[in-house]
């Protein structure tokens, strides 16, 4: 765009005329609003000095030094009052009013350029269930930067500019102080989430230090002495299964949210991601011990008879309102039998549910096998919070597969690489490299990064990132030269009720996703969260692989993830 054309786009004609009428020195314009602050400070100081004199007048009058200092101070105040007092209440008000009009005009211009603003509302594209790719602006280049002093705008006006794309949300800290940047960004995301019917989702997500310890006691932590604040970033919009979602991520790793956000953008521009839950069941595997290996084998055979499994199922489900026993898989090791029980747990992650039901199953087995000895309610074949081939093969929690197609033009424009190169990097790194390392479930670039960040934000058990991060990332070049990507994650363990999900901040993040609490159909919300975790992981994989393919990983971290040491 020619420079003169870009200049004409900055302000409407009326605002431009006002700008031309005002004198513009060669240097920066005076910050007139500072005079108001000085006026109040000077007035307050003068009154304080008068009160000080009135309270100790005899001593001051007898002390020539104190009297001289006080007289000089009053002289300075008088010079200031006669020279400057009142300027900010006359001229500055007019200037600020004009700049506020300019800011309003700029916001209106942003609406015009994007074709919005009808009915006085600035909608956030896309609306619910509308893929981002249906918005032509999603493929357009960046909007020209705001050319007004953003310090003169209200928080609401700035949030409007962010929603319209005139000001980028990730640049707010460069334009404002950090506290105000968070406030403005919150307003912007409130507006964006409002279009998805979740406008008050972030109301309980604190942005200043606070924690209701009453909610923690007896539920989340013991011997509490405080809490550790973790920043929460929001990436998206991400088009998932035809709907728009925003993904909260709690992390202290710089660039993670920004990188995942870039992956979300590329996926949405390409038409969005599809995600499917293949299996759903949390497991617990009690270890029992028999008198002999023969008796252990007999116990295994008994459990595998359909009529006997029906008895186990009845005993298990008597302990829960909606939990369902889906299977019992005994494994024999000498005299030991590890009975791996698989339970549908609805919207709860389900560890307490399956543990309680497992005790009922053991009681039933003891009635059939009197010499059975319970060694441990968890025999480590579950397998919980440890890398295990059984989770990789059999699954645990939610087994999810997600995929997307990214057009080659978007690969070049958004990911800054090409299809052949990124496919090649994935093959050599995620598949061959991981195989040479002998990894279990680690055929990915950094799935654990995204999984853990979403887990922390939404109140999941962060230790379960071990098995929940099991992921194989596959990339292929399509017949048309586009990029196909998928992530298969067999053991995502999430819930939307119970545990840390009941805390206000974590519940707010779940609400922002659209899956807080129990769903209308048991398990519906937990499955949605699992799909979001998988799709966000795929976005993170896509962006990191692109950075590796373009060799920009170190450059990005040096630019965005380094600050001078605190003094």
Task: State the main characteristics.
567 residues; alpha+beta; nine-stranded mixed beta sheet; 15% strand; globular; disordered N terminus
* Overall outline: globular
Low-confidence stretches: 1-29, 85-99, 109-138
What's the pLDDT, averaged over the residues?
83
Round the Cα radius of gyration to an integer and report it. Answer: 31 Å
DSSP helical segment count: 22
Structural class, by secondary structure, is alpha+beta
- The count of DSSP E runs of length 2 or more, i.e. the number of strands, is 11
Describe the model.
With 567 residues, this protein is an alpha+beta fold. 49% of the residues lie in helices and 15% in strands. The chain contains 22 helices and eleven strands. Strands 3, 4, 5, 6, 7, 8, 9, 10 and 11 form a nine-stranded mixed beta sheet that branches. A two-stranded antiparallel ribbon has the order 1-2. Strand 5 (324-333) and strand 6 (336-344) form a beta hairpin. The chain is globular and about 110 Å long.
């Amino acid at each position: 765009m020619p420079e003169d054309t870009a200049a004409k786009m900055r302000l409407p004609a009326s605002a431009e005329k006002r700008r031309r009428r005002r004198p513009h020195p060669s240097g920066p314009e005076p910050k007139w609003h500072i005079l108001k602050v000085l006026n109040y400070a000077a007035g307050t100081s003068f009154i304080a000095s008068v009160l000080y004199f009135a309270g100790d007048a005899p001593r001051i009058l007898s002390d020539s030094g104190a009297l001289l200092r006080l007289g000089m101070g009053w002289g300075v105040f008088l010079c200031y009052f006669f020279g400057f007092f009142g300027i900010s209440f006359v001229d500055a008000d007019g200037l600020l009013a004009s700049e506020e009009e300019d800011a309003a005009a700029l916001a209106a211009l942003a609406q015009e350029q994007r074709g919005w603003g009808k009915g006085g509302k600035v909608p956030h594209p896309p609306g619910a269930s509308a893929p981002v790719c249906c918005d032509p602006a999603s493929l357009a280049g960046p909007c020209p930067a705001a050319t007004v002093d953003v310090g003169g705008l209200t928080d609401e006006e700035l949030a409007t500019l962010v929603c319209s794309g005139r000001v980028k949300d990730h640049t707010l800290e460069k334009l404002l102080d950090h506290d105000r940047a968070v406030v403005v960004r919150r307003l912007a995301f409130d507006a964006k989430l409002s279009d998805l019917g979740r406008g008050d989702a972030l109301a309980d997500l604190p942005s200043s230090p606070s924690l209701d310890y009453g909610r923690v006691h007896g539920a989340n932590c013991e011997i509490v002495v405080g809490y550790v604040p973790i920043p929460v970033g929001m990436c998206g919009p991400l088009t998932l299964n035809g709907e728009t979602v925003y993904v909260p991520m709690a992390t202290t790793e710089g660039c993670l949210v920004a990188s995942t956000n870039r992956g979300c953008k590329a996926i949405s521009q390409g038409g969005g991601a599809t995600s499917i839950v293949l299996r759903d069941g949390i497991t617990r595997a009690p270890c029992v011990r028999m008198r002999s290996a023969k008796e252990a084998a007999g116990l295994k055979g008994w459990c595998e008879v359909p009529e006997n499994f029906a008895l186990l199922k009845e005993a298990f489900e008597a302990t829960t309102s909606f939990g369902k026993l889906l299977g019992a898989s005994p494994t024999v090791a000498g005299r030991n039998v590890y009975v791996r029980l698989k339970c549908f747990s609805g919207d709860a992650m389900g560890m307490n549910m399956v543990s309680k039901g497992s005790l009922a199953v053991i009681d039933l087995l003891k009635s059939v096998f009197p010499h059975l000895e319970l060694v441990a309610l968890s025999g480590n074949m579950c397998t919980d919070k440890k890398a295990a081939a059984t989770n990789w093969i059999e699954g645990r929690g939610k087994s999810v597969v997600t995929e997307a197609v990214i057009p080659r033009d978007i690969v070049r424009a958004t990911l800054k690489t090409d299809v052949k190169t990124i496919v090649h990097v994935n093959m050599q790194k995620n598949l061959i490299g991981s195989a040479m390392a002998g990894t279990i479930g680690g055929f990915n670039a950094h799935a654990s990064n995204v999984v853990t960040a979403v887990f922390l934000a939404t109140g999941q058990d962060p230790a379960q990132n071990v098995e929940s991060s099991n992921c194989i990332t596959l990339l292929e070049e399509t017949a048309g030269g586009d990029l196909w990507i998928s992530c298969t994650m067999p053991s995502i363990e999430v819930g939307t009720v119970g545990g840390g999900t009941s805390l206000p901040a974590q519940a707010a993040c779940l609400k922002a996703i659209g899956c807080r609490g129990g769903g209308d159909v048991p398990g519906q919300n937990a499955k949605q969260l699992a799909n979001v975790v998988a799709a966000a992981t795929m976005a993170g994989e896509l962006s990191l692989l692109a950075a590796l393919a373009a060799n920009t990983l170190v450059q990005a971290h040096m630019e965005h993830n380094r600050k001078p040491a605190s003094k």
